[in-house]
Amino acid sequence: MSFWPGRRVLVTGATGLVGAWLTRDLLERGAEVVALARDWDPQSDLIRSGTVQRVTVVNGAVENIGVMMRAVNHHGVDTVFHLAAQTQVRAAYRDPFETFESNVRGTYTVLEACRRIGAPVERIVVASSDKAYGDAARLPYTEDTRLDARYPYDTSKLCTDFITRSYFATYGLPVTIARCGNIYGGGDLNWDRIVPGTVRSLLASERPIIRSDGKLTRDYVYVKEVVAAYELLAEHLHRPEVRGEAFNFASERPMSVLELVEAIIGAVGVRLEPDVKNIAVAEIRDQYLDAARAKRVLGWRSRYTLETGLAETVAWYREFLGKAA
Fold first, then answer.
1. Phi, psi of 178 (to 5 degrees)
2. How big, in percent rounded to 5, are the helix, strand and coil portions of the chain?
3. Which end of the chain is more exposed for a tag (fewer CB within 10 A), N or C?
4. Across the chain, what does the average pLDDT equal?
5. How many helices (H) and strands (E) does the chain have?
6. Are the CB atoms for 282 and 276 separated by under 8 Å?
């Protein structure tokens, strides 16, 4: 609690899944939050929960340098969490231009605004992804695994990493990078994603749809774990072993899509066989992370089991969708 009271914190992508949870937690810890929001989405948990009434909202696109200068300079922020991004793999496949504009141009625009402001900005946490590693021959990914993305979304996150490191190496910008596995939790309204899509289907007594063959292996991390990880990185950014470095955060419990759907079926309590479409494109077969560096350097630990995270997630969707237990 003692670190955050009085801090002026900018959260880009504040209406997204992680952004909304992070904003609420920072407020509870005493921070003053400036939230960047491109669109006013009344279904975003930031707005539905009333959290938006407790923050300063800057409207605009993350790739607009004027907007970012206003957000950073006019509001006197000392901490930046850069989360704004186009996060959907299928959307990136359909429209790579928009994805690169948001994820690549957006990243260097945020960092450039912070560089121009200079000393007042003391810490910047940039959200990357395990997708930046690409299709590695050896798993799990460690931070030493070569970044070798190929597909549009994955490549946009690789660029996020390299641009952030460039600003650190060239200008000494106080940055660090978080690479997480697949993030899930209440508030994710991208129904194409496996967790919210499966939960919604089961609550509607419909067969959940699996777009891959169900055998893709992933690491799933609960949104509250990610919030704690981002905050921990910011709190430790004064340390030379953190500044300019990247850290993996994961449950370290990889599973197939079919195994995850089975776990969701158990959490919802409705048994329906999934409809396996096997039509996925631009997807890497196996991806999961080693979080040893975060444990060793930051003292980070995963505190939510999949079962606990899914139970809380299902409860959130029951309330949101008006479905009784």
1. -110, 125
2. 45, 15, 40
3. N
4. 96
5. 12, 13
6. no
Distance from C-alpha of 254 to C-alpha of 219, rounded to nearest angstrom: 5
Residues involved in catalysis: 153
Q: Which pLDDT belongs to residue 297?
A: 98
**315, two tokens:** 């409860």
Distance between CA atoms of 167 and 174, rounded to whole angstroms?
9
User: What is the amino acid identity at position 133?
Assistant: Y
Q: Which residues touch 83 (CB under 8 Å, ≥6 apart)?
A: 11, 12, 13, 14, 16, 18, 19, 22, 127
**Pick from 100, 311, 91: which is nearest to 193 by CA?**
91
- Please state, in angstroms and rounded to a whole number, the distance separating the CA atoms of residues 202 and 272: 7
For residues 254 and 101, the answer to whether their CB atoms sit within 8 Å is no
Which pLDDT score is estimated for 323?
A: 77
pLDDT for the residue 291: 97
What is the residue whose two structure tokens read 């893709």? 216
What element of type H or E holds 115? helix 106-117
Mean pLDDT across 299-318: 96
> What's domain 8-184+223-249's architecture?
3-Layer(aba) Sandwich (3.40)
pLDDT in the model for residue 283: 87
Q: Report, as an integer, the average pLDDT of 24-52.
A: 95
* β-sheet bridge partners, residue 57: 35
Q: Which residue has the higher pLDDT, 31 or 88?
A: 31
- Give yes or no for residue 1 having a pLDDT over 70: no
Q: How confident is the model at residue 83 (pLDDT cuts 50, 70, 90)?
A: very high
